[in-house]
Amino acid sequence: MKIYFCGSIRGGRDDVLVYRRIVKKLRSYGTVLTVHVSSTELTDQGEDASTASDRFIHDRDVAWLQESDVVVAEVTQPSLGVGYELGRAFDMKKKILCLFRPSSGRTLSAMIRGADDGNRFLVRDYSEDKVENILEEFFENQKKT
Ligand SMILES: O=c1[nH]c(=O)n([C@H]2C[C@H](O)[C@@H](COP(=O)(O)O)O2)cc1CO
């Protein structure tokens, strides 16, 4: 299974340790195409502009989205890129799981929470200590569909 993980980069890297935890678990289900999103070396400047132009990043990521079977997004830290990826993935009819931590004190965008259709696009509130359980439940259900 190919998994596309979305997390904030230029939107801010405050949650990178949560991304690491999620990606570690995701790797037990398949190939994570976007492991770099969870790298503690990656700053809010994004990937090195000298090796990867914005167009390169965009086109590569859209191709990876196309290739993916499942999209998992940590959406607590607002990110334009993650919002864009989710919109594109929705149009591509991908299976999508969005993960939000209410303990952040933020309120998730209506354009994400309101997109939950109980089927292809799911939004789950979680606390960090339960994130593996939420992922287990999601991937168990994938086997049934
Ligand atoms: O350097 C990058 N590499 C990259 O893969 N992305 C993709 C993957 C992330 O899920 C998403 C983050 O978007 P943003 O940078 O707007 O927070 O965009 C985004 C950037 C920088 O915008």
Automatic annotation (TrEMBL):
Catalyzes the cleavage of the N-glycosidic bond of deoxyribonucleoside 5'-monophosphates to yield deoxyribose 5-phosphate and a purine or pyrimidine base. Deoxyribonucleoside 5'-monophosphates containing purine bases are preferred to those containing pyrimidine bases. GO terms for biological process: deoxyribonucleoside monophosphate catabolic process; nucleoside metabolic process; purine nucleotide catabolic process. It is an enzyme of class 3 (hydrolase). Its EC number is 3.2.2.-. It holds the Pfam family Nuc_deoxyrib_tr. Its main location: cytoplasm. InterPro entries: 2'-dNMP_N-hydrolase, DNPH1, Nucleoside_deoxyribTrfase. This is 2'-deoxynucleoside 5'-phosphate N-hydrolase 1. It is found in: Cytoplasm; Nucleus. Keywords: Cytoplasm, Glycosidase, Hydrolase, Nucleotide metabolism, Nucleus, Phosphoprotein. It catalyses: a pyrimidine 2'-deoxyribonucleoside 5'-phosphate + H2O = a pyrimidine nucleobase + 2-deoxy-D-ribose 5-phosphate; 5-hydroxymethyl-dUMP + H2O = 5-hydroxymethyluracil + 2-deoxy-D-ribose 5-phosphate; a purine 2'-deoxyribonucleoside 5'-phosphate + H2O = a purine nucleobase + 2-deoxy-D-ribose 5-phosphate. One of its GO terms (cellular component) is cytoplasm. Monomer and homodimer. Belongs to the 2'-deoxynucleoside 5'-phosphate N-hydrolase 1 family.
